From TrEMBL:
Residues 20-184 form the Band domain. InterPro entries: Band_7, Band_7/SPFH_dom_sf, HflC. It comes from Tabrizicola piscis. GO terms for cellular component: membrane. It is found in: Membrane. Belongs to the band 7/mec-2 family. HflC subfamily. This is Protein HflC. Keywords: Hydrolase, Membrane, Protease, Transmembrane, Transmembrane helix. One of its GO terms (biological process) is proteolysis.
Length: 301
């Protein structure tokens, strides 16, 4: 019984020592084993590790790719235009010992500040050497790769690999937006005025051509009409002359009817002339009373 009282605490102590000498590295982590602040072991593979209990300690670091959203900065381009640029960098720790020596305690927060101080100057260096239109063109990817390469070379001293750098925003500063928009609006208005002027000029040419064509077609139609009318009159006169030559009395009768039709149009037509005028030769009747109008049958022209 007395032996059990000493054995159980001893077993517990031994188990505690064994457990404190074992550590587990997750597949998303890397670890450094420190002894009095000095690195004694680097554990980059996931699994179990061992350390001296109560003397050594384990510090874990991320093995995953991490992100860095940079603060917006103003960049003066080669054409003196200013742009507000936001970027996003992806990075990972590649050398644990160099990383710890470079950033010290508060590793990740300190690493973000150090890395941002590398990425932002790289952005200013690359974008400041090109005109602003290249940032908005297909060359944007090449520019981002240049920024990444510069940041990667400088970040290697921190034990960090810069995987990628992406420009998330490239806008004009607020104070320049109104002036830029007004200039763009004026340019578009000038282009619109030029298009309207060219369209009006083209419309004038089309309208002048159409008016000339109308005049030519109308003149030609009138000329043809006059020719046809003259030919018809000549043919009519020839027919009338032939009819007059064959039967002068019938021709005189037809001419009189035509004269009646032309003179007595309308409901209130009236003619003032002597009753015994030759104009009424075909209207007088010896049988009809003098005080009654003579009724005649209509004759087709």
């Amino acid at each position: 019984m007395m032996r059990a009282m000493y054995v159980i605490p001893a077993v517990v102590l031994v188990l505690g020592v064994l457990l404190s000498s074992v550590f587990i590295v997750d597949e998303r982590k890397k670890a450094l084993v420190l002894q009095f602040g000095q690195v004694t072991q680097v554990k980059e593979e996931p699994g179990l590790g061992f350390k001296l209990p109560l003397i050594q300690e384990v510090v874990y670091y991320e093995d995953r790719i991490l992100g860095l959203p940079t603060t917006p900065i103003e960049v003066t381009m080669l054409d003196d235009r200013r742009l507000v640029v936001d970027a996003f960098a992806r990075w990972r720790i590649t050398d644990l010992i160099r990383f710890r020596e470079a950033v010290g305690t508060g590793a990740e927060a300190q690493a973000l500040r150090r890395l941002e101080s590398i990425v932002n100057p790289a952005i200013q260096e690359v974008l400041g050497s090109v005109p602003s239109n290249r940032v908005l063109s297909e060359d944007r990817t090449a520019l981002m790769n240049q920024i990444r390469d510069i940041a990667r070379r400088q970040a290697a001293n921190l034990g960090i690999e810069v995987v990628d750098v992406r420009l998330t925003r490239t806008d004009l500063p607020e104070q320049n937006l109104d002036a830029t928009f007004n200039r763009m609006r004026a340019e578009r208005q000038r282009e619109a005025a030029d298009e309207i002027a060219r369209g009006g000029e083209a419309a004038q040419r089309v309208r002048a051509t159409a008016d000339r064509t109308v005049v030519e077609l109308t003149s030609d139609a009138r000329r043809q009409a006059e020719v046809i009318r003259g030919e018809a009159d000549a043919e009519r006169n020839g027919i009338l002359a032939g009819a007059f030559g064959r039967d002068p009395e019938f021709f005189s009768f037809i001419r009189s009817l035509t004269a009646y039709e032309a003179s007595l149009r309308g409901e209130n037509s009236s003619i003032v002339m002597q009753p015994d005028s030759e104009f009424f030769n075909y209207l007088r009747s010896e049988i009809a009373p003098v005080d009654r109008p003579v009724e005649t049958a209509p004759v087709a022209p």
